[in-house]
Structure formats: C-alpha cells, structure tokens
Amino acid sequence: MMRIDVISAVPDSLISPLNTSILKRARERNKVEIVVHNLRDYAHDKHKLIDDKPFGGGPGMLLKPEPFFECIEILLNERKYDHVIFPTPGGKIYDQKMANDFSLVENLLIIAGHYKGVDDRVRQKFATDEISIGGYVLTGGEIVALAIIDSIVRLIPGVLNDSESALNDSLMDGEIIEAPYYTRPAEYKGMEVPEILLSGHEKKIKEWKEEQSKILTEHWKKINSME
Ligand code: 6GU
Predict the structure, then answer these.
(1) How many structural domains does the chain have?
(2) Are residues 55 and 116 in the same domain?
(3) Do 110 and 87 touch, CB atoms closer than 8 A?
(4) How far, in Å, is the centroid of ligand 1 from the Cα of 114?
(5) Which residues have CB under 6 Å of ligand 1?
(6) 12 Cα–ligand 1 center, Å
(7) Which of 51, 90, 215, 227 is the most buried (most CB within 10 A)?
(8) Of 94, 118, 153, which closes a domain?
C-alpha cells in the first residue's frame, strides 16, 4: 500500500478533508495510508515553540528548523521516501504528469509550511521536489498538500469505482478537459441539453464527447498560453 506522510503546524486543516468522500473511502479500503504529523509534537522546549522571528527583519514569523529536522529524521530512519515534496510558491507548477508520476511510487513525504514560511535550511536539506499549484499566494502549504494528495490518490487502482473513473475513459493522451455533462431535465429555463446526448446513438455520442474534449482542451491551452 502506498504511504503518504504530511508534516504540518496546523494538522487540523488536513484532517477533515482526508476523512471525507473518496479520500476517506480510499483510506478505509487500504488503498493508501496517509499519516499526518503535528509539527508541535517535535518541539521540545518548555513552551513547545515552533516559530520565531526572521533574521534580517521583516514581518511575520518563520517555522523553526529543529522540529522539522527532528520529525523528518525519524521518518527517514523508518523508510526511504521516493519524493520529499516541499510546497512553495517558487516551485514547479504542478500538473497531471507530476500527479501520474507520484501515483506510481511507494512512499511520499510532504512538508507543509505555514505562516510566512519555513527556515530555508529545511528545504535545502530535505526537499527533492519544490512544487507550486499556481500563480497566486496561499496562507500555507496545507491546501497544496491536499491538492497533491487528492490528485494522486484518485489515480491509485481501485480507488475510483467504475462510474467515477468512467468519466475519464474517453480522454485521449494529452486531453485533460472533458466534454460537458448534463442530467435531467432535458430543458431547463429555456436551456437545452445538446440533442446528440438524447439520441441514444452510442457511437455518435462517443465521437461528440471526443470532439468536445479536443476543442475544450485546445481552448484551455490557448487561454493558458500553453501553445
Ligand atoms: Cl506551494 N504555497 C503557497 N503558500 N501558496 C501557493 C503555493 C504554495 N502554490 C500556489 N500558491
């Protein structure tokens, strides 16, 4: 079973999403083991301090290196990690290919920083993959960690049931945007479902979905200046 460890200063922000819907089901069915580590458990001073002021000044607090080093060194003594993922706005923009690659390995460690950031020595010492999920700034790496975990876990064989994974069956290599979906009613406030979907012509419907996927993927590449 694949194992994903996550280190966070605010583990509560991970717990509920990891115990909901498909991620919850995947964990219950032993498709993936996800272990959340509370950074504060690795602070050993009297007040369990995990943050401090940045050298050189500036606003905000930084997460101290020692609790990270302590936690990560314990984990590294227990197993080898295929990737140590370090969410940072300066990292490589995450995409489906990276998700596919990560989904094939045994052990992943995600170091989720918070507040202003993490003492850079943690990144220098342990990070193998620095990842951003887009050109905007979040308050911390937890939402990034959840995005990465979700994108990986849904690719693990047996995680999605047939009707969930069938949604992607028509996608060709390189096409990532699907045709639009509709359910009843066939007409709503004057808006009609494309007639082909009501026709019962299985082959023509399949061709229509492939064509829509192609058009929408090209449009997506264009609006994101990807070619
Ligand atoms: Cl990895 N971190 C933060 N704080 N914000 C982000 C991000 C990461 N990726 C996109 N925005």
Answers:
(1) 2
(2) yes
(3) yes
(4) 10
(5) 87-89, 91, 131-134, 136-138, 140-141, 144
(6) 18
(7) 51
(8) 153
**52 lies in a domain?**
yes
As a whole number of Å, the end-to-end CA separation of the chain is 38
DSSP letter string, 110-125: EEE--TTEE-HHHHHH
Mutate which of 93, 132, 139, 142 to test ligand 1's pocket (most atoms within 8 Å of Cβ)? 132
Residue range of the domain that includes 91:
2-153
Tens of pLDDT along the chain (227 residues) come to 999 999 999 999 999 999 999 999 999 999 999 999 999 999 999 999 999 999 999 999 999 999 999 999 999 999 999 999 999 999 999 999 999 999 999 999 999 988 679 999 999 999 999 999 999 999 999 999 999 999 999 999 999 998 888 666 667 888 889 999 999 999 999 999 999 999 999 999 999 999 999 999 999 999 999 88
Residue with tokens 């690719």: 155
Question: Quick one: 141 and 190 in the same domain?
Answer: no
Q: What CATH number is attached to the domain comprising 147?
A: 3.40.1280.10
Rounded to an integer, what distance in angstroms lies between the CA atom of residue 149 and that of residue 108? Answer: 10
User: Is the domain of 207 the same as that of 103?
Assistant: no
Residues 90 and 189 reside in one and the same domain:
no
Which CATH number belongs to the domain containing residue 210 in this structure? 1.10.1270.20
pTM flag (> 0.85): yes
**Token output for 48:** 């369990």
